[in-house]
Amino acid sequence: MFNEPLGFIGVGNIGNPMALNLIRAGHEIHVFDLDEARMANLIELGANPMESVSDIAKNCPTIITSLPGPKEINEVIAGTNGILENAVPGTIHVDLSTNLPSEAVRLAKMYEAEGIILLDAPVSGGVPRAIDGTLAVMVGGPQTAFEKCYPIFEAIGDHIFHMGESGNGALVKLINNLVSISARQTVVEALALANGAGLDPERALEVMQTGSANRQILGGAEKIFEEDYGNPTFALRLARKDLGLALQVGIEVETPTPMASSAYENLTRALKAGYGDSSSDSAFSIYKKD
């Protein structure tokens, strides 16, 4: 248990239940989000609302962030009135967001010059597991900081991994997402091929589920046929964003990722067709014949 308050920046779809579980675990939380309505339930349970990122940085020796992506992470850390300008030496920043490994390393070095520690600690499991407190947490950064922050990870997850140096948490998250997102789009494409060839795709799925196709990849694949892809736990635009980050890693380390590239193209077509806020299974709709 921490003797000082934890600062939590970004309490959206997945950040909110994580902050809630920290409160339930007995931690004192100072919270900030650009959308004040997102903080309401946390404030009711005792969280202290703050007015800005700088207020969090000035008052909390340990800061947690859950943000949409690299742009927002960089702005919160290095932007005007950000953490870097306002945090004191010895502060630990636990970033639960999905970031580029190279960005995580760059920001960690920037912090190091000011005596601040960054742990890149993205999570996996989506909103349902965030609510249950059963996320997988993948952490990169100094071992001592990881050990100090273990009570934080324990409150939000039940599979906690220290992956070594800075950037490794971000890297393994993108590797995980590359597999899950690309594999699902392969299933979407296979069912679209069945449909295009005049075969009932639902019957094709029945065969795939009992044949050599991996059962884990096909888990819940019936949802691909839903007409309403709304209210997803992980929107298509977010899947595309994460897959794009994984592709960027491939470019940076000069490793081809053709299967992931094809999946990214599928998601881009679906995004342009208006399915950005739907589940990634909605990519099936772009194949449907009238």
Describe the structure.
By secondary structure, the protein is α/β, with parallel strands linked by helices. The chain has two domains: 6-165, NAD(P)-binding Rossmann-like Domain (Rossmann fold), CATH 3.40.50.720; 172-287, N-(1-d-carboxylethyl)-l-norvaline Dehydrogenase, domain 2. It has 13 helices and nine strands. Helix 6 (101-112) links the parallel strand 5 and strand 6. Helix 1 packs parallel to helix 7, helix 10 (168-196) packs across helix 13 and helix 12 (236-252) packs antiparallel against helix 13. The radius of gyration is 20 Å and the shape is elongated. The chain starts with 5 loop residues before the first strand and ends in a 15-residue tail after the last helix.
